[in-house]
Amino acid sequence: MSSPARLFARGTYGEATRIAALLRRETVGGVLLIVGAVVALVWANTPWADSYEGLRDTVVGPASLHLDLSLGTWAADGLLAVFFFVAGLELKREFVAGDLRDPRKAALPVAAAVGGMAVPAIIYTVINLGNEGGLTGWAIPTATDIAFALAVLAVISTHLPAALRTFLLTLAIVDDLLAITIIAVFYTSSLAFGPLALALIPLALFGFCVQKRIRSWWILLPLAAATWVLVHESGVHATVAGVLLAFTVPVVRSEAAGGPGAGPGLAEHFEHRIRPISAGIAVPVFAFFSAGVTVGGLSGLGASLTDTVAIGIVAGLVIGKAVGITGATWLVSRFTRAQLDTDLRWPDVVGLSLLAGIGFTVSLLIGELAFGPGSLRDEHVKVGVLTGTLIAALLATAVLKPRDRVYRRIAEAEARDDDGDGIPDVYQEHGRTVEQTSPRETVDEASERRRNPSAEG
């Protein structure tokens, strides 16, 4: 009888290495995001709050193209398109060439992402049933901010195992895709089919160029900008253009370029180039222009938190995410008879689910789309998102930190390399844990030795 499948088992060595490097970059971006949000929050609650609002509401851009937008809108519509482009590249790569191309491995993070969006939305809706105007914001507590979550992990110095970090990242990526779908379907108030149809032309040309492995920025950037402008004109939120452009980029190398084994494809090339712009500039600037809410002291904070919109957001982020993600993981375990990896316990899943309740970037964006930037309800949304995020971070810290000794032991085992060949002595191969038996043996060599034992010696 075959052994039961393991939830949160260690992934392949190559994928684990790539994910680790990616998470380090996201952590730096998360710190910058927090800095941008704190600066905005402090500035908006000083005697100079009017200067912050004046900067945020400064209008720039050509009116002839309907692009005379405030700096805050440019950050939400323009800079976040870069963020969603990177998210789209990562999502496509995971499902085409990453560990998640295996449906059995993809099932858990996809189910967890769906549960982690559905339950918060239900909780928010139930709380706001008597508040007809508040129901518009049902999607606000459904998002997970991976950069913010990783920054929290860095601050509390927990050695979360690679499998849990990978799960958190993948969940957040699927979460982003579902969020952009929600934005496109439910937060498009008016649709102009002419510009939307015209957007297919530069989008198709961009796709043709990248499929031909053309990397010239002076060709691709104007096509991407034209796609963004036309999608913006259509009434669909312009960030959708970022995801559509990302999905056209090839993940693996063509046979003419040496095939999949010849190195990273164009999607990974673009990701390396653009992720620093997204994490280091786009998201922190958006946070700066979106997080500046004038609280008005404890009385103002209390008044904001009496609004059922803010209550629903806090409950959705803190309770909904924990229940949705943990519940979905339990259901996958129950119906597939999979078991948690031997070193992990269900409190680890609960802690990770609480960490996923750190919603910021996309939550603030949906809040602006639902109630209008600068409106009273939008101010309450910001208070709710910030409060829910803070509570989720504190609860996740309380659950995960006591387990850090276990996590440290797992991390040391994952990094063990007694023969000094740069490859862990224990890694995953085709879903099985494999131990190297010869010095300086690469993963490919180990795989070949196991496929063709007669070739040894």
Strand content: under 5%
**What oligomerization state is this entry in?**
single chain
Please count the beta strands (DSSP E, at least 2 residues each).
Answer: 6
Q: Please state the CA-atom Rg, rounded to the nearest Å.
A: 23 Å
Structural class of the secondary elements? mainly alpha
Low-confidence spans: pLDDT under 50, at least 5 residues?
427-457
- How are the strands ordered across the major sheet? 1-4
Helix content: 55-70%
Order of helices and strands: EHHEEHHHHHHHHHHEHHHHEEH
In short:
By secondary structure, the protein is mainly alpha-helical.
What do you see in this structure?
Helices cover 66% and strands 4% of the residues. It has helices at 13-43, 49-56, 71-96, 103-127, 146-156, 162-186, 193-211, 217-234, 239-247, 266-290, 297-304, 308-336, 346-355, 361-371, 376-400, 404-415, 443-451, and strands at 6-7, 59-60, 69-70, 339-340, 426-429, 432-435. Strands 1-4 form a two-stranded parallel sheet. Helix 1 packs across helix 5 and helix 8 (217-234) crosses helix 9 (239-247). The longest helix is centred in the first third of the chain and has 31 residues, at 13-43. Residues 427-457 have low confidence and may be disordered.
Q: What are its keywords?
A:
457 residues; mainly alpha; two-stranded parallel ribbon; two-stranded antiparallel ribbon; 17 helices; 6 strands; globular; disordered C terminus
Secondary-structure blueprint:
Layout: E1 6-7, H1 13-43, H2 49-56, E2 59-60, E3 69-70, H3 71-96, H4 103-127, H5 146-156, H6 162-186, H7 193-211, H8 217-234, H9 239-247, H10 266-290, H11 297-304, H12 308-336, E4 339-340, H13 346-355, H14 361-371, H15 376-400, H16 404-415, E5 426-429, E6 432-435, H17 443-451
Parallel strand pairs: 1-4
Antiparallel strand pairs: 2-3, 5-6
